[in-house]
Amino acid sequence: MNTSKSPPNILWMQVWALALLQGAITLTWLIYNSYLPKLLTQFGFPTSLAVGILVVENALAVVMEPLMGGLSDQTKRSLGSRFPFISVGVILASALFIAIPCIVTFIPPGDVFRWILPIAMVAWALAMTVFRSPAMGYAPPKAIALLGRYSTPKELPLAVSFVTLAGGTIGAFRGIANNFILSLGPIFAFAIASSGA
To answer: Is the N or C terminus of the chain more exposed, i.e. has fewer CB atoms within 10 Å?
Structure first.
């Protein structure tokens, strides 16, 4: 009589951790996108600069995400872990995410310091790619491959649905959350998102 336990079809702890990471990333982008035009105009920039910054950030992400993913793969092969990339990226992203509202709150928007804000915003987006790529996968096939380690092929759609649900649930409240998030004030809202990420 064989009483050995078969391995679980889905490693739920790992799947939930990945889903929480996806939710935290979505929350930071939701807060960032809600505040971006307000912070720029508060610092003397036109609201149209927000679109330009988002275009630059997305263009840089197209290059940086595969690069960071590839470098983290090399680190995984040589050191056995992607943790160096993830830890440095999380620390940088959290520090820059807190710095953005602090710049607007504590630095007067003079000509000398005025460009610190857009530079900090772009630097934050780059820091996000440093940890997001190794942690989540830099392309959908890699993210699915990562989840493929946590579930059997038959259960993979269920595992993917939990990660998608986490991001989608937070994203679904974007319209409702905008007024609430803006009412918190930039430092408090950014601090909440930074601690979650």
So the answer is: N
